[in-house]
Amino acid sequence: AHHPHSPRANYELGRAYYFKFEKGGPDRKQAFDAARRYFAQATRVDPAFTNGLFGMLMLYQLAHATPPPALIDMLARRLALAPFANNDGNMLSQVMTCQEQGDCRLPPLMLRRILQAALSNPTLTGVNRASVLTTASRFFALGSNYAASLRMAREAAADDPGELQYRLNVVHWLISLGRLDEAQRALTRCKAEDTLGRHADYIHEQERRLRDAHLVQELKN
Predict the structure, then answer these.
(1) Rounded distance, CA 20 to CA 132, Å?
(2) What is the pLDDT of residue 29?
(3) Which listed residue, 5, 23, 85, 150, has the most CB atoms within 10 A of its CB?
(4) pLDDT at position 218, please?
């Protein structure tokens, strides 16, 4: 009421109606319409703001409906041309998680277009680029294209070499590709660098995957 031209205020009100729609009830249709209206308003008042578009994307998925092409066009355009915000990477990761869990069923070409648009943005650098590349590696894994997942993970590690998790992601995809000796060497280096044990759980998971992969190879032989 006090800030009708605030993109964030409109987005947050859209989220409130989104959760009301998710909860269900006799006024579910009204909640959907209100969520879409406020997400659209958030999009209109700021030409660089993407949260409203992501909100509408998720709203359509919650309603088991394919987002309109115009929505994807606008989201791709903003991700490619507007100054890339930290939250854009978070939103892309959330969409990918939804897709991985089966709650979202976006057509792969639509999801790929959004990711390609983000990666084409000249302001996407450093840690933000590493984050989007990691999301892209997860996208390719949905189609079992682990070679592309590995390529994206290596680029992410190069863009943010100080973050050990990105190099551990490389290990993950090396195991998926059956490149076990290479994975073992990389995992040993990562484990030696994790002096504070921040990544201990993930390292143990990759050690288990590596043991299982060796066992499978032995059984095949």
Answers:
(1) 30
(2) 94
(3) 150
(4) 83
Output the CA angle 177-178-183, nearest 5 degrees.
95
Q: Which amino acid is at 28?
A: R
What are the C-alpha distances in Å from 203 to residues 93, 102, 193, 209?
22, 26, 11, 10
The model scores a pTM over 0.70: yes
Q: Look up tokens 């930290």; give the residue.
A: 86
Tokens of 78: 């903003």
Residue 116: name the closest of 84, 79, 170 by CA: 79
Residue type, 173: W
**Alpha carbon 61 to chain centroid, angstroms:** 15
CB 97 within 8 A of CB 135: no
98-127, pLDDT tens digit by residue? 999 999 999 999 999 999 999 999 999 999
Question: In this model, does residue 30 exceed pLDDT 80?
Answer: yes
pLDDT (0 to 100) of residue 220: 80
